[in-house]
Amino acid sequence: MLFVMQPQTRINRHEAVQSWADPQETRTPAAADGSRRSVDVDEVKAAIVRALSERSALPPYAELCELHQVLLSHIEVLKPLAADRIDGLDHGTVAWDGKRAKLDSIPYEVCRGLGAGLQSAASHVQSLGHTLRFLLENSGVQGRVE
Question: What is the dihedral of CA 77, 1, 10, 82, to 10 degrees?
């Protein structure tokens, strides 16, 4: 399938921005390795609940490692979708600026790793849970079935 992409110019608060329009099609997001993966919203929500659940004791490190990998895989899939939607907002607005700043901080949070101890691992997993919730809310996949 061949798509011809043409530049679009839109006026944002103080400047004209020229961008290339994506073809309007339903797509399955591409992972970093180029493979296509569908978004299972229920699975993403379950991972968020696991990451943000309050516990009286810290979970085993192995469980945190497994949850960390699950969160990272969902973040990898949802980040481009959220970026597309956020970039569609009026640039320079408070909403765009706040969401863009959060989106730009995600690569640094992801590469940080779990840390050496159980407490740091639990804290990092919880932080990734909040990040994944942000991506889910801003990706637009909650309203469509895949």
Answer: -10
Tens of pLDDT, residue by residue over 119-136, are: 999 999 999 999 999 999
pTM equals: 0.72
Residue 23 CA, chain-centre distance (Å), reads 21
Region 37-50 average pLDDT: 88
Other beta carbons within 10 angstroms of residue 66's beta carbon come to: 14
- Whether 19 shows a pLDDT value over 90: the answer reads no
Spatial separation of the C-alpha atoms in residues 119 and 61, rounded to whole Å: 9
CB contact set of 131 (below 8 Å; sequence gap of 6+): 71, 75, 102, 106, 109
What pLDDT shows up at residue 26?
33
Higher pLDDT among residues 31 and 137, named by residue: 137
Cα separation of 33 and 40, whole Å?
19
d(CA 77, CA 64): 20
Q: Look at phi and psi of residue 115 and say left if phi exceeds 0, alpha if psi is from -120 to 50, else beta.
A: left
